[in-house]
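Sample A.
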Amino acid sequence: MDVIKRIDELMKERQWSDYKLAIESGLSSSTIANIHRRNTVPSISTLEAICSAFGITLAQFFSENTLNVQLNTEQIELFNLWICLTENQKLIIYDLIKEMK
């Protein structure tokens, strides 16, 4: 698997810039830039931080499987909005949804 290509795919899905990935992952902008400019494969700890920013595990990052469930347009839109939220915002929304059941 091409790790850098996978990172780029995840960034594109979320419409994230290098700067946004740096902020969300807690990594420096230069670290993210080096991955792209120099084709530097990130260390495991760096990749873990990147995966955490994307809200996925390392296993999910390396998984060849795509979504096993077909999402409709509304669900895709909600998912794309969800992944752009901060962890605190996600907790608030999650709690709100649980209360509505």
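Sample B.
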Amino acid sequence: MHEGIQRIETLPIPREALREALLNACINKDYAEPSPIQIRVYENKMEIVNGGVLPDGWTVETLLSSHRSFPYNPDIANAFFRSGEIEAWGRGIERIITACKNDGFSTPEFRCDASGIWTIFKFEYPERATTQKTTQKTTQKIGLSLTEQQRAILSFLKEYPGSTRKEISENLLNITEDGVKYNLSRLQELGLLKRVGGRKQGYWQILE
């Protein structure tokens, strides 16, 4: 994603949910336990593990339901509260789940075992589905304003996706190689065409 010439990085998990999960880990870690809070990033998920324990009698189901505030480190929780980093005690899990739902992500997995308390986010890109639907509608509108040359190029590339600019020009009437170059660039700008691979081994992909 870009804003002007600046690239804006997007995360495969909600930023607000990640923030809450990290604060939650800091507040509930058992600091007598030597291992640090661990953040493990894999290809399709992120795991946040802190060596904390749940209050006696509590389970993961307790965390997921309405419950009273019982931070493992109340002084740290109070410091975060006074600095404005958290709005209320005991609502960390609720805010994580809400942030995920609001941004179209699935609920992360929460787990507690002998190694600590786990928060596991699956990497997702829900905006892509929305973007694809929007692109389809936009493509239908754009299709009405395409030139005959652009339509001819798209039609030709559907059948011969590995064609070069020279081959396209030789097989279509009344279009020079420079004209092919211009129209290929224009079709890419419109989001209707994509180049996959290099000049020799690559091919053209029609985006529909």
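B remarks: The CA atoms of residues 110 and 119 lie 5 Å apart. Helices lie at 15-28, 60-64, 74-82, 92-102, 126-143, 148-159, 165-171, 177-189.
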